[in-house]
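Minutes, methods subgroup
Present: GH (chair), OT, SY

1. OT presented the first of two proteins processed in the latest run. Sequence and structure tokens recorded below as shown on screen.
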Amino acid sequence: MKLSTRARYALRAMAEIGKESDDDNPINLSAIAKKTDISHRYLEQVAISLKNAKLLKAVPGKHGGHMLARTPEDISLREIVEAAIGEINVVDCVLDPDSCDKSDDCDCRDVYCLINRRIRESLSEYNLKDLMEGRIEA
């Protein structure tokens, strides 16, 4: 399984915004794009998803930009990933058993559900502050 580029960029952007902005000093997406090496155009799309999830807020005006909508401690990594890519779902039948006519008798479905649950739990266990401060152990 591979984490999508969109999810990785959302995590990277949120960490950088958390480090560089505060209530009095929003940061613009151009600066974030430069610091994270993410194209500005792609970053704009990711930012829309993060704003829709109420993880990021935009500050209009000449000295405007973007800032976290909540404190880094209050934003789980799962929220960021799911804002970017939707609900974590390694196989369609995990969240929608009716999507597969074999789900009732599938020997593999339990392992798919286990993997899905563990990924969600792992991402929920850590918050943005942990990411920003390098407190996540591999």
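2. SY then presented the second protein from the same run.
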Amino acid sequence: MSKKILIIEDDEAISQNLSTALNGDYEIFQALTGTSGLEMAKENNPDLILLDYMLPDISGFEVMRQLKEEEKFNEIPIVILTNRTDSKTISGILAAGGKEFWSKTDLSINDIVQKVREIVEEY
């Protein structure tokens, strides 16, 4: 059974590029908003969530907070994708239960795919 990855990203190009790069190795689900991402997480029980910090409806931080309120999501790694690298944002992400944060501007799609493989193998 392949592992499931949920990508919650409002930039359709980034979401599609990640999906294409990861498809084949994993079962991929995509959401363009935080609200739809919450629904998809609850329906599909992903093994990893890639979550954009800035979403059009509710923030990625709020999505993560709501997920972490449910016990079944406490063990699921959530990686925040962001361009915000200030220490307050980063410490808030990690304190709220985020596994890691990755800067979209510093990583290529291939870098992200490699990091995803490392995390999925770990869990």
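Chair's summary of item 2: The first helix runs from residue 12 to 22.
Next meeting: continue with the remaining queue.
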